[in-house]
Amino acid sequence: MTRPFPLTIVVCLLAALPAAASHSRNGAVVVSQSAPSARLTAGQTVQVSITLRNSGTKTWTRAGGYKLGAQSPADSPAFRVGRVPLPVESVAPGRTVTFTFPVNAPVRPGSYDFQWRMVQERKEWFGQLTPKVQVAVSPRARRGKVRLDGWQAVDDDGPFNAVGFTLMSALRLYRNPQTRAQLDKDLDEAAAAGYHFARILGEVGWDDGKEISPNWPDYDQNLVAYVRHAYSKGIRTQLCIFGGGSPASASPSTRAAFVDRVTRLLAPQQEAVFAMQVQNEPGVAGQFDDPAESAGHARRIAAAMPGAIVMMGAPFDKGEEFARYGFPLSPHLDRGTTGTLWRPVRQPWDYSELGKPWMNDEPVGPGSSIYSETDCVRQKALHMMTFIGKGFATVFHSSPGVGYRLRPGFTSPQVSDAPCFKDIPAAVGLLPFQLPQYTRKNGHWRDSPFENLDAFDLQENTGRGVNRAYSGIRGDDFATITLNQPVGVRFRCRTISGPVSVYKLETLQVSETVQCAPGTEFELGPGPRLLRRPRLQGVASPN
After folding, report:
1. Do residues 255 and 278 make contact, with C-beta atoms less than 8 angstroms apart?
2. If we measure between CA atoms, which residue out of 296, 297, 328 comes closest to residue 314?
3. Surface-to-core class of residue 379, CB atoms within 10 Å of its CB (0-12 exposed, 13-18 middle, 19+ buried)
4. pLDDT tens profile 45-69
5. Residues 6+ apart with CB under 8 A from 3
């Protein structure tokens, strides 16, 4: 005979149910939300307000780690605020609390989700999500006149790592109604990608109707109109005055007259100008290469446009000769492949040894002359290395940007369709935005942040090898790039303690976090890496 189930046990189980249900818990109900408007301008600051009711049985306290946290995804840094502390010491069950705080629209245009939820740190997210608001962020031109502060480009919005792109034919494209749409697509795409300026030619004697001629009856009108038009789209202008080959570049006297002419036109537009560059490439394609004459033109520009960045073009192998005149330099680094495919990536480190502010004016890129670089990982490394090499700006250079011919493999005249176009601002955006002011450290120096323990010979045109770890460091902050390594490479932490984020340049995402202490060894997989301090939650570069 089966014995009945003991009643006392049944009673005990039933009695236990209310006790389990009465355990204290977290809960939150959304009462109201004052969210940003559906459209903001990049970098815009707005005040928001979110009211929640404590619907749980636990009291929210500051000491207990209760905060309001960004969502979509959790702890999203899109609006530069990840978590907001309670504005009061505690919120009892049934009570409401209002979080009022400023948020900043992302600096990179695009579409972003604005949504929040309560969190008890180190324990759980809980309660209702606030209504999701999709915010469209449009480009905004940076404000104020651009100038140099030491090695660093600054304007009224603060310091920034300037990223530009070659658009040599801009004046011709703007002047011709049939090509205006092509120009606008490149300007719009560039602003959306995060570029700051376009590098254009003031004159050039190209044939087949593709010249940019100061003899156009509407030249002055078009120069001013283009600069204003580009700036209205968020893109400043770097005017390279002489491309060579037109009557304006024929003699010292005609060159002086043309310099004074364009300077007079652009001085009132100085906020829309990134920099004034005297000549494109001294000694090439008939361009004058007298540094004394170039410096004379630079002095007149500087007098007419106080504070503006005025640069002398400089051959790669004559940097010292041009540097002695005291102006920033805009060299064209060697675009050959002597030694290794990674040599052009490393060159910014060498050029900074001249001790003068400089920009990477026409580096190797997709469809560039002599050697075309379409490997986007190397492209990202090259432009990031510019700022570790103390350059204040870098330029994406492509065959469509040159504007007078398309090399094999290029089917579109659009700069924005060139390989790697959108990758460069995204890569530079991972760097500290005052990196040109940091102190350089090579991996084999005793006071560098990291030492590489494995080395490989750099073999001709194979891309093999590791060129140490190149760093910029200031105080406790740093940015380090390791160049190509074919297999896993071991490193040792030298002067760095604490967590280090490791970014893969292929994805621009954090692949791992290394806990550093002096002497700690770690291994990185194949391919270049960026090593940085973990970003402060919600803090982004104002690029």
Report:
1. no
2. 328
3. buried
4. 889 999 999 999 999 999 999 999 9
5. none
